[in-house]
Amino acid sequence: MDIQLLPLHWVYLVFIGFILAMLIKRRDTTMICVVGIFALGLMATETLSGSISGVFNSFIYATKELMGTIMIISIIVAMSRVLIRTGINETMVAPLTRFMRTPSMAFWGIGIIMMVTSWFFWPSPGVALIGAVLLPVAVRVGLPALGAAMAMNLFGHGIALSGDYIIQGAPKLTADAAGLPVTAVMEASVPLVIVMGLVTTITAFWMMSRDMKNGTWRDGLVAGGSAAAGIASGDNEAEKIVLAPGVKRWLAVIIPLLFALDVVAMFVLNLQGGDATALVGGTAVFILILVTLLAHRNQGLEQTTSYLIEGFVFGFKVFGPVIPIAAFFYLGDAAFGELFGKVLPESSHGIVNDLGVALAGVVPLNGAVGAVTLTVIGAITGLDGSGFSGISLAGSVAHLFGSAIGSDGATLTALGQIAAIWVGGGTLIPWALIPAAAICGVSPFELARRNLLPVLIGLTVTTVVAMFLI
């Protein structure tokens, strides 16, 4: 099929190159994206007012597309705040500590608990929810604090966040940019997440055990020892709220049970994507209200609002840098026509799709080249330490390569998502490692150094597996 490439296509491609260059240099890409939207708008509308308005409207478009994701994360964080301050989180995980009798059991126990918790609460609140309770137990049975930080980090910010199967924030971003259903990306990611998770965690555990046996292990402790859970969550002891022990125990049973019922309902009612996210979010809202009313009594109405504000501040702080970037990459698909009118040729299926088809005609592309490219691009986008700000780029490039090699791009999209989040979501970039490092009292740089080789080995093996799945 002949594709007519307009100057618009080339300008879009040039700006993708600029964004990649800025990411490699660890510079912020927001301004580049805004200039890119303005330039595309100016070419499409040929009016200054239309291009300037297009920048704002593209932000609105991206915010509308991301609002469900921002909302669910904000609500989950709001709920986690009240669970931490009432100590319900400690009661919830306390029974699990009896299974941690050896360093090995502590490493895998902390990791699995962190992974499950992160599926429902997201990793950053998850660190605060369980770190302060499980860390002393792990250290007491011989697991170094740095080993505990690795477990929380690799299982939470790595495995749980890269799949994000319950809250579905990550697959929503990449799927939208790739022009695919969220469920397609999630299904394609399952084998890749499993391979990446197994290879990385087993390698990290083996290296830790080897170094401890050989006496070459360095714990990387920082002055002052491990932090209290409040450091990661913004709480302190004065803000702790006293609940009756019986009430706390009942809530510690009811809350996990409600989320477990949500999971059952997802399967029974075949809820996916936004419907599944809405179920979890609604459950979290009612849990927040119930616990806040029980904890604050007469002040419950006002405190509910206060917790929601905390959650929204966190949500928009995380997604503030994402909105302009996502706005640019949404222009690669349906958003362009909606914002700037029908400017592309009749045969066009969107800027990115056109570039992919044209690329296939001049460059011999295959699944292996596409897989390696997506892993590299995903890793580069993660260099800013966000993990989320660049996965729209990964989805967009996966769309381009998928069109070029005649694939739907779901596996490539999932691979780019996994690479971006493992690198930038909190396993390799020191400033993204601070929550886990602070809760365990270890250096984020030492934690990043420990994670580096296992994550690189995991990405290599996962990329090879992806080549056979494309």
Automatic annotation (TrEMBL):
Keywords noted in UniProt: Membrane, Transmembrane, Transmembrane helix
Domain of life: Bacteria
TM segment ranges: 6-24, 31-60, 66-84, 105-121, 127-143, 150-168, 188-208, 250-270, 276-295, 307-331, 351-380, 387-406, 418-440, 452-469
The protein's name: Transporter
